[in-house]
Amino acid sequence: MYNATTPHCADLYSPSYVNFTLSILILLGILISYLPQHHRIISRRSSEGISPYFVLLGTTSGTCAFANILTLPASQRDLACCRVLNGFECAAGLLGIAQVGVQWACFTVILLLFLLFFPTATPLSPPTKPTEQPSLRTAFIVFVTCIVHLIVVFIISVIIIYRVPSHLTAWAHTLGVLGTCLAAIQFLPQIYTTWMLRAVESLSIPMMCIQTPGSFVWVGSLAARFGWEGWSTWGIYLVTGVLQGCLLVMGITFEVRKWKKRKQQGEDGEENGHVYGSAEDEDHERTTLLDNER
Questions:
Q1: φ and ψ at 276, to 5 degrees?
Q2: Residue 246 pLDDT > 80, yes or no?
Q3: Nearest by Cα to 251 from 183, 202, 294, 184
């Protein structure tokens, strides 16, 4: 039973204002970092260029990470201590959980937008590269798999928490290892897709510019909060930070090449009396799932 004299709860009575401020900034940074990606898909009304397997691995990895931190013994102690702490002390103690929860929620929004704005060819204009464009069936399978995975993880976690709490640590680390493995390969399909397209399309570079350095700051924050006991929690974001950095470098390289090509075309067009439109202005005559429903 946790009370005011419990050592773990006593440590939460005097939260560091520096750590609290840093944790709030990280929480806001996570939220803000995903907004460019949400906006890019919505503004383009297309999720073209985003690998379905990147979405699948990212969502399931995020689910494992969120379930991991919720079932971690240290988090369970923090939640129990909230019964004897005031609102500020409790909030400060749960910021680590909130950060992972916001990250999971933001990536789940990408899953929804990916399906909602999934590009399909119109009858008059079939895709020029059908082998590179995943099918709508694949998008639905990815969506359903993510939902089923969420339900299964939730049910198992609840059963272990209330029926066999002695296995909670093992389950938390299992989720952490699974999440790390999924995160380790999460960016590989997207790296491949971006490499084949030689363009980022609906993938947001500003999002990666914020998240790549932010991942390492977040790793440091989680490691300071949970220590080596929570390696399975912060290890996920260490791996994803490295791989996302590779994708960012690739994306910037392709965008710079595209910009140079546009500039060269513009100079050539002026010399020949023609004006070339930008790639963003080109109409690839695709419709999305949302447009089809309308």
A1: -100, 140
A2: yes
A3: 202
Write out the DSSP string of 98-167: HHHHHHHHHHHHHHHHHHHT-EEEBTTB--S-TTTS--HHHHHHHHHHHHHHHHHHHHHHHHHHHH-GGG
Over the stretch 10-51, which tens digit does the pLDDT of each residue have?
Answer: 767 777 788 788 889 889 988 999 999 999 999 999 999 999
Domain membership of residue 92 (yes or no) is yes
Residue 237: name the closest of 29, 61, 24, 73 by CA.
61
Which tokens hold the place of 41? 């898909």
DSSP code at position 200: -
Domain-embedded: residue 179 = yes
The pair of structure tokens assigned to 147 is 């939902």
Does residue 283 fall inside a structural domain? no
Kindly tell me the sign of the dihedral angle through the C-alpha atoms of 250, 255, 260, 264.
positive
Domain that holds residue 214: 7-119+133-274
144 domain-assigned: yes
> What domain count does the chain have?
1
Separation CA 158–CA 75 (nearest Å): 15
Query: Which of helix, strand or coil describes residue 94?
Result: coil
Between CA 145 and CA 291, with CA 34 as vertex, the angle to 5 degrees is 60
Residues 222/168, Cβ–Cβ less than 8 Å = no
| Alpha-carbon 257 to chain mean position | 27
The reported pTM is 0.79
Among 29, 47, 51, smallest CA distance to 38 is for 47
